[in-house]
Amino acid sequence: MLKVLVIVALLGLAIYLVVRTVQGRGVVQPRRPQSRPPARPVAPDDDPDFLRDLDRKRKHPDDPDGV
Questions:
Q1: pLDDT tens across 1-37, in order?
Q2: Which domain holds residue 21?
């Protein structure tokens, strides 16, 4: 009788570990699509308006409007 209980306990432990491993990998639970924020400039050198304005200021340093 004790052998049967040990076998059942080991079988239950094995099944538990397999289920936990599969859940940890995200195989059982379907992944939800992640929404991304719209693309935007991250740094000033990625922003075309900033670069355009910087170029205008460099070409016309005395003109406050940059035109």
A1: 899 999 999 999 999 999 888 887 755 455 667 777 7
A2: 1-28
Position 59 in a domain = no
Q: How many CB atoms are closer than 10 A to CB 51?
A: 13
Residue 67 scores a pLDDT above 60 = no
Nearest to 45 by CA among 54, 58, 37: 54
Q: Is the dihedral of CA 44, 49, 53, 56 positive or negative?
A: positive
In DSSP notation, 14-43 reads: HHHHHHHHHHHHTSSSPPPPPPPPPP--SS
Domain count, the chain: 1
- Judge contact between 11 and 5, C-beta under 8 A: no
